[in-house]
Amino acid sequence: MTDGEPTDATSDSGDEAATDDVSAVERRLAARNEPYARATVVRREGPVSANVGDRAVVTAEGDLYGWVGGAACAQSVVEREARRVVESGEPRLIGIAPDPDDVDRSGLDAFPMRCHSEGVVEVFLDPVVPATELVVVGDSPVARSLVRLAEELDLEVTLVVDDADAARDVPDSTGVLATLDPAEIAASVGVAPLVVVASMGQYDARGIAAGALADAPYVGLVASDKRATADTARAADLADTDPETIRAAVTNPAGVDVAAHSPPEIAASLLAEVVDVQSKTGSGVAATADASTSEPADGVDASEDTAAVRPDENGTDAGDTPGDEHDGEPTDEAPAMATDPVCGMNVDTGDPAATVDYDGQRYYFCCLGCADSFEADPGSYLDSDGGAEVRS
């Protein structure tokens, strides 16, 4: 591009048209939770086409939108150095001049102006890196503790639950997503979220699948080995993804080794692992995390379930009485009850969490996790009569 007035152009990626409406580009990038750098002309010496106050946006890929002067060599320097600013997260002041020594000084990085222009331009590059999004899946004591602890850090926290009313006591800064559809969850979160799945078996598979669909660099799962195996297999079906890919993406048991046992302690171990992964991947920047290098927390070790918070093989929290969280107020006329064939809980057939029709019979379930497990392999949960016990 030669010196002259700014013109519209198409970026190398073909994603968007470069435009002098920088604010609109910033809004689009912010909506997608993508990092970028602001480039602002803070000093100029003619002859250059840029003026003090001219500005542009440069994406992490190096695409420039806006105006910092027409000289192609000046733009290429801004694009290159802006990418480095996004990667480092540190702002910089750069100067571009025919003789870099003329502008070189403390606090400024000088570069040569290799075009025919004899002018000088100085540009301030300011990184805009979105906060890392932490997606916590589940309405369990561990999940709630994690959400409360994460409020103290520079994280955008989203709690995924099956019922928004169940999340009324979360911090005001926490977003609540009341859907269990993996595709909807993935579409609702930003770029490269960090995901912790701690629903205690109720909808773990759906959380894992959502993490896979969102290209999450970290998916931590709080579950026993047996539950994790079943959940990852089911998640692969839900995400229509190779099971090995899912297994490789999931860290289980999740959390660093801090001898955690209570829900707040396990949440602290999970948060420590999240911070570690965040430091390796970069805030808001998509990258592949080597989460397998993190040490598991004692409190979530698959070989020693902790009674206070560990899920048992049926997806309920150890130490809880099956069905307690589903029992309503007593009524004069008891509703028909069925036994969940997966976990053995009593289920109100008038208001089940899920049902599955199989071989001409309807089965009732306390949660979607049990329904998913049954649907994947009904025969393993049925007795010789082929049915669950129903009683009034």
Q: What does this entry look like structurally?
A:
This protein is of the alpha/beta class and 392 residues long. The chain folds into three domains: 9-128, no CATH class; 132-300, NAD(P)-binding Rossmann-like Domain (Rossmann fold, 3-Layer(aba) Sandwich), CATH 3.40.50.720; 324-391, no CATH class. The chain has helices spanning 22-31, 72-88, 141-150, 182-188, 204-213, 225-239, 243-249, 263-281, 368-376, and strands at 9-10, 17-18, 36-45, 55-59, 64-66, 92-97, 109-112, 120-128, 132-137, 155-160, 175-177, 194-197, 218-221, 250-251, 337-339, 346-348, 354-358, 361-365, 390-391. The strands form five sheets. Strands 5-4-3-8-6-7 form a six-stranded mixed beta sheet. It has a six-stranded parallel beta sheet with strand order 11-10-9-12-13-14, with helices on both faces. β17 (354-358) and β18 form a beta hairpin. Residues 1-20 and 283-334 have low confidence and may be disordered.
Key features of this structure:
alpha/beta, Rossmann fold, six-stranded mixed sheet, six-stranded parallel sheet
- Name the structural class: alpha/beta
The structural domain count equals 3
What is the fold named in CATH at topology level of the largest domain?
A: Rossmann fold
What's the pLDDT, averaged over the residues? 78
Share of residues in strands = 15-25%
Sheet with most strands: strand arrangement = 5-4-3-8-6-7
Q: What's the β-strand tally? A: 19
Gap between N and C termini, in Å?
Answer: 80 Å
The total count of helices amounts to 9
The helix fraction, in percent, is: 25-40%
CATH superfamily of the largest domain: NAD(P)-binding Rossmann-like Domain
Shape: elongated
The CATH class of the largest domain, by name, is Alpha Beta
**Rg measurement, Å:** 27 Å
CATH 2nd-level architecture of the largest domain: 3-Layer(aba) Sandwich
Q: Sheet bearing the most strands, described? A: 6 strands, mixed
Low-pLDDT runs = 1-20, 283-334
Protein name: YHS domain-containing protein
Pfam families: XdhC_C (PF13478), XdhC_CoxI (PF02625), YHS (PF04945)
Domain TRASH: 340-378
Organism: Halobacterium bonnevillei
